[in-house]
Design goal:
mainly alpha, two-stranded antiparallel ribbon, 10 helices, 2 strands, 75% helix, Probable membrane transporter protein, TM_pro_TauE-like, transmembrane, transmembrane helix, TSUP/Inactive_protease-like
């Protein structure tokens, strides 16, 4: 095993750690790790990310549920429209995006560049919403109308399907700001949605891509070890600090991806 592979598995451990702490962000680290460090094509990287994040989130969901930090009803309400959108995006939309999206003079925007740049834009928007100083949200006793949840799940599912993300970095703020769920409970609840979305999205990829199962399983097991550590550590960190740290981390990764895609292509 060379140094690059060692760094790759160390990264997998950190992916799980991040998921355990913030209920999302696994794909934010997994996709750049697979693309920039291990040299995978972005299409393959986003597919592998779905499997890694989905499998790891399943373990995290069980751990959070035992601690009473999962709103199963809300999680499933978001999951249904979302996983449909994710599957259809991965099965039909992503494979049919043209290899060259557009060209202007000597500049060519490829399919891979477009996915990575779109990925970074979504991350940037999410990070800003989480970093902003806002008054503590009062949790409403009334459930949000289901049609709103359905639309929100459909939109986020389509976006996460395009970028190969579990969507935790979108679902956590959505659950906090739209469903009025406290931050730590939103983290646990998001893991249900991430698990379902990611694994169903990956099923769409299995039908169109060749998968290196040996690597993927080893990477995933390492990530699962990380999430077990992250879930344990999360009980020692305040919700406010968790939210801000999540936002700052997402912002840094978004800027890095834009830099890489615009300077090295």
């Amino acid at each position: 095993m060379d140094n690059i592979q060692i760094l790759g598995y160390l990264g997998a451990l950190i992916v799980g750690l991040v998921l355990g702490l913030i209920g999302g962000g696994g794909s934010i680290l997994t996709v750049p790790l697979l693309v920039y460090l291990l040299g995978f094509n972005p299409i393959i990287a986003t597919a592998y990310s779905l499997f890694v994040v989905g499998s790891t989130s399943l373990v995290g969901t069980i751990q959070k549920y035992k601690k009473g930090l999962v709103d199963v009803k809300t999680g499933l309400a978001f999951s249904f429209p979302s996983f449909v959108a994710v599957y259809l995006s991965r099965r039909y939309l992503v494979p049919n995006i043209p290899n060259t999206i557009f060209s202007f003079g000597d500049y060519i925007l490829t399919k891979e560049m477009g996915i990575m740049i779109f990925f970074s834009i979504i991350m940037l928007i999410s990070s800003i919403s989480m970093i902003k100083n806002k008054k503590e949200i009062n949790v409403s006793k009334e459930n949000q109308a289901y049609y709103k949840t359905f639309i929100q799940g459909l939109i986020i599912g389509t976006i996460t399907g395009l970028i190969g993300a579990g969507g935790g970095f979108l679902y956590v703020p959505a659950l906090v700001l739209w469903a009025n769920i406290p931050m730590k409970r939103a983290v646990g609840t998001s893991l249900i949605i991430v698990t379902i979305n990611s694994l169903i999205g990956f099923i769409g990829d299995v039908q169109t891509l060749e998968i290196d199962w040996a690597f993927l399983i080893a990477f995933t097991i390492t990530s699962i070890i990380g999430i077990l550590i992250g879930v344990y550590l999360s009980k020692f960190i305040s919700s406010k600090k968790l939210k801000k740290s999540f936002g700052v981390f997402t912002l840094i990764m978004a800027i890095y991806i834009v830099y890489r895609e615009t300077n090295l292509k």
